[in-house]
């Protein structure tokens, strides 16, 4: 006999752990199912840190969501007593006419996001260890910083369970059936029926939403940790995160948390993944040269060769924007997918939005631009 729950969440990474938390906070009967463990390293929500910022150059429509995300991260810190968000600031550098710098200033103009313009002379003093390319504009966003990614997932789950949520770990999802009258999930351990379902399965989204023609592409992404030659990137010395819009690609990174290494990566590119369960996690020869060239050009106090690495996945949409919507066959099925490598900072608010949609069918937050309808119009 199938086990019945009112609300079921599939996938308990960044988005699913938050959705579980927000449903349980409302006193609802909710179960979360995760195919791996808590804050695992098999998907997209791992690797120690994720940048969070309000001057969102990808699209200004995200900024109201970010304003709410900031509030909710703060609330989670207050209620849990955990430190999750370090406001160390973010330096962004790129050509003045480029989409990144123009997007930063648009966020400043439209929403009053605090952004400082930094002169080349001041940049040398404020950001030691960086060689700013000739002709680049430099901005600094003091309210930006980074989230401790695994800790955020763990905290959402711990708080959800403290509020009464049930969690099933290391349980593989075999089948998801959705019809107008039925929501039925089969795992390798049980059958579950639900009155409402939230799907947040990251790179496995297409498999769990097989009835929907979602234009999702999963790519393998490598995170690198390079050793420092001089202590100029240290968090405890007041250094922050950074993002460079280079002619050959977009590169980002974080201050050195322990003084020995800096985490950095290239945002674009990535090899297409056929099966997310069996992604290659070894370091390929081709994973390193582009980042090494960036380090040699821009970060002379960093060793250009990595000392360690991690592999995660981006689940991308054609336009790089998220998909947050309800299932056309059953409006009580809600999903968030295609976060395209820039979604984790939104996890706190995405959980609230998904919980809103699952419980009432609507949310007060402006998510119309994230509807799946844009791919069929």
Automatic annotation (TrEMBL):
It holds the Pfam family DAO. GO terms for molecular function: flavin adenine dinucleotide binding; sarcosine oxidase activity. Keywords: FAD, Flavoprotein, Oxidoreductase. InterPro entries: FAD-dep_OxRdtase, FAD/NAD-bd_sf, MTOX. It is an enzyme of class 1 (oxidoreductase). Gene3D superfamilies: D-Amino Acid Oxidase, subunit A, domain 2, FAD/NAD(P)-binding domain. Its EC number is 1.5.3.1. Its cofactor is FAD. Residues 6-357 form the FAD dependent oxidoreductase domain. This is Monomeric sarcosine oxidase. It comes from Gimesia algae. The lineage of its organism: Bacteria, Pseudomonadati, Planctomycetota, Planctomycetia, Planctomycetales.
